[in-house]
Amino acid sequence: MMKRVTVKKNERGLLLRNGDFERVLQPGRHLLWGGLGRLDVQLFPLELPAFVHRLTDYLMAKEPEVVEAEFVRVALSEHQAGLRTENGVLVELMPPETRRLYWKGLVDVQVQVVDLDDSIELPAELTARLLQTQLRPRSVAGLAGVLQVVVPEHGAGLLWVDGKVERLLGPGSFAFWKFNRHVSVELVDLRLQAVEVTGQEILTRDKVALRLNLSATWRYTDVLTAYKALAKPAEHLYRELQFGLRAAVGTRSLDELLENKNVIDEVVTAQVKVKLAALGIELTSVGVKDIVLPGEMKTILAQVVEAGKSAEANVIRRREETAATRSLLNTAKVMEDNPVALRLKELETLERVAERIDKISVFGGLDQVLNGLVKLR
Questions:
Q1: How far apart are CA 127 and CA 133, in angstroms?
Q2: Does residue 357 contact residue 376 with C-beta atoms inside 8 Å?
Q3: What is the DSSP string of 95-110?
């Protein structure tokens, strides 16, 4: 019939009679008269301010005076979010349609209501505050409802809202509400980028299969234009380089390509650069890295080169022989008209012969050596 209850200073008590709410018990000793009913007292520590109970909705709907006196009331609409702080520290991002009660007293609970229809982006001050909370030992609850993005200095960010490009983000930190909408940010690198087109097998005009590897550098000049016109700009650039390479190789013979390899670079650049300029992409350079010939074609070309070099060598040899013969003829004409020169030539010849002989026997004087018998031993 009688029940004694002690409520500590850091507690609050919820008195239920036959399961129905009767009143909130303040700190102190309470003597409760039960009569014929059943009394039940539930104690709540104020260190945990959240009031989690089956009677939350009842109290908010039917006991406004009790709620005003004892609780911090949170009732968000479908277009509102909440920022809950405890003793001035941000602890939770509350989603729309949240309905809660928090005990007043020990912990100072404050809830800032944010209208989601006003702006999709969180204020810069709140964004910086969220970044700082990542360094705290206690994390902020409800961060899944916010998209946080850091755009580097050399890049940009495409903000997509419900499948549409909203705007372009510059370098910096940003945060966006994800409640009631689909939000994403795609980071884009604004620096020069390289693309490799490798292993392209293309037939020349004279039906020779070549395998080419091409390298190109490019960058964005207008990111919004590029992504509005193209789903994947990098893949589109790759395909255009393929088409340009086929146009450059397929309309020329193998000899033309081997004689002037730069023609491929020039044709691909001229064909692709104009198309990409209208799409917000700049093609800065194009270069063919390798031209790989089939095995049998390598053998044939090697034979052609060898034959060509042999022919050049024969021409040079014949040219030298002709020059030598012409020189001998000129020498003979000089000796024919000048006996002294002939005599000197004979002495020169004798000197060269003497250099190769160990002993010489001469009979009949010097004239005999020149005009008669020379015995060599």
A1: 10
A2: yes
A3: PTT-EEEEE-SSS-EE
Instruction: Record the tokens describing residue 324, joined without a space.
Output: 């030598």
pLDDT score for 135: 64
Q: What is the pLDDT of residue 296?
A: 60
What is the DSSP code string of 107-121?
S-EEEEEEETTT-SB
User: 228 and 163 in contact (C-beta within 8 Å)?
Assistant: no
Amino acid residing at 306: E
Q: Are 345 and 328 in contact (CB under 8 A)?
A: no
- H or E segment at 75? strand 71-75
Alpha-carbon distances of 218 from 146, 191, 244, 279, rounded to whole Å: 34, 8, 15, 13
Task: Find, among 56, 60, 76, the residue nearest to 180 by Cα.
Answer: 76
- pTM for the model: 0.68
Residue 364: what pLDDT?
58
Mean pLDDT, consecutive 10-residue stretches, the chain (377 aa), reads 87 91 92 81 94 93 94 94 92 94 94 91 87 73 91 93 91 92 93 90 82 91 91 92 89 81 87 90 90 64 59 76 76 72 69 67 59 46
Nearest to 67 by CA among 58, 79, 78: 58
Count the residues in the chain: 377
The 3-state secondary structure of 126-193 reads HHHHHHHHCCCCCCCECHHHEEEEEECCCEEEEEEECCEEEEEECCEEEEEECCCCCEEEEEEECCCE
3-class secondary-structure state, position 63 = coil
Residues 120/83/24/38 CA torsion (nearest 10 deg): 60
- pLDDT score, position 374: 44
